[in-house]
Amino acid sequence: MRLIKQLHFEKLKPLCPICRSNGQESFLEIRSVLKESNNSIIEGILICTNTQCLSEYPVIDGIPIIVSNLRTYISQNLIPILCRDDLTNTMESLLGDCFGPGSAFDTHRQHISTYAFDHYGDLDPQETTKSPASPGSIVKLLRQGLLSMEHNVRGPVIDIGCSVGRTSFELAKKFDEIVLGVDINFGMLKTASSILENKYVSYPRRKSGIAFERREFPAVFEKAGNVDFWVCDATALPFSDEVFSAGVSLNALDCVWSPYDHLKELARILMPGSRAIVSTPYDWTANATPVESWLGGHSQRSKHKGSSEAVLRSLLAGGDHPNAVEKLELISEEELPWTLRLHDRSFMEYLVQMIIVQKKSAS
Length: 363
Ligand SMILES: C[S@@+](CC[C@H](N)C(=O)[O-])C[C@H]1O[C@@H](n2cnc3c(N)ncnc32)[C@H](O)[C@@H]1O
Description:
Layout: H1 4-12, H2 17-21, E1 28-37, E2 40-48, E3 56-60, E4 63-64, H3 70-76, H4 78-82, H5 89-99, H6 104-120, H7 137-146, E5 157-160, H8 166-174, E6 179-183, H9 186-198, E7 200-208, E8 211-218, E9 227-231, E10 244-250, H10 259-269, E11 270-280, H11 308-316, E12 328-343, E13 346-359
Parallel strand pairs: 5-6, 5-10, 6-9, 10-11
Antiparallel strand pairs: 1-2, 2-3, 3-4, 7-8, 11-13, 12-13
The chain binds S-adenosylmethionine.
C-alpha cells in the first residue's frame, strides 16, 4: 500500500530547487521512509534524481523541506525544528521566562498564538465572546474569494503562505483535489501538520507579555487526507509549469522578499484558464521585503505616486513595466477586513485588498 504522501508526491512531482535555479528540471524522489504513522511519512529523505546533483531534502514531522539553501534554512530554524512539544504548560512558561521577550522562542510562540487564534479559535469551546474581536477572519476572507473560484478547479490546489493551515483544510472541503499548503515558516507548518495528523489543535495563546495559556481542542476537517504541508519558498516554487488548477495567496505578498517573483511564480505554476485569490494589506516592512521590491509604499514622486494598488494593477496590465506579470489577468478587486489578535488587550485591524487573477490561455 502506498503512503498518503507518496500519492501526493506522484501527483505534484516536486523538482529539485537547486537544479531549477540552474535552469534544469530534475524531479525529486523519496529515498527513504524513516518513520511513518497513519499511512503518512513522518520522517524521511527526498533526493534529486539528477546524478550530477543528488541533493537531499528532509521530511521532518511530516513536512518536506524543499528549499535551495537547506543548510542556511535548517540553521535558521533550529528552535522550531528541535523544539519539543511534550513539556507541561508550567515548564514551558518557566522556559519562556528564561528566554525572555524578543527571544526566538518568544517570537515563535507569539506567531503561533496570533495565527492559531484566527485560524482555529472558532472551534475552541473556551473562546468566549468577551474578546473585542472574534476569530475566523481568514476563513471569511477565503470564503469571499471562493465566490469567484468555482471556475475550472480540476487538479491540485496550492495555498501559498498557508501558515498554520486552516485555509488549506477549507480548500480541501470545497474541492475534491489535493491541496498543498506551503509556507517558509517551519514552526507554523508544524502546528498545521500536527492538526492534520492528530485532528487536534494545541497552541500557546498569549495573554500578555510573555504569559501564555495552552489551548487544546479537537479539529476534524472533511477530506483532510487530501491536504499536505510543505516548506517551499513562494518566490522559487519547486514545481513544473502549469501543475495547479487554483491558487490562494492570502496576506503573503507583503511578507515575501520579492513580491514580483511571487506573482511570477504564481503565474508560472497555474494551468491556463485557472484562477488565484491574492489578498494583501500592503503592510510593508524592510525586515521582510527590501524597499526596492515593495509594490508602491515609496517614491511618491513617481507615476503611481507610491500607491501599492496602482503598482499592482500596472504589473497585471502588462505594458512597459519591467516586472510585468503578462500571464495573469485581473478579474476583480475588493476590500475586506482582516483581524489579528496580539494579546488579550491588543488586536490589529487591517483592510486588505483582495484580487482575483486568471492565468491567460496560450494564444
Ligand atoms: C501574514 S502571514 C499570513 C498567513 C495566512 N495566509 C493568513 O492570512 O492567516 C504571511 C505568511 O507568509 C509566509 N511567508 C513569508 N515569506 C514566505 C516565502 N518566501 N515563501 C513562503 N511563505 C512565506 C509567512 O511565514 C507567513 O506564514
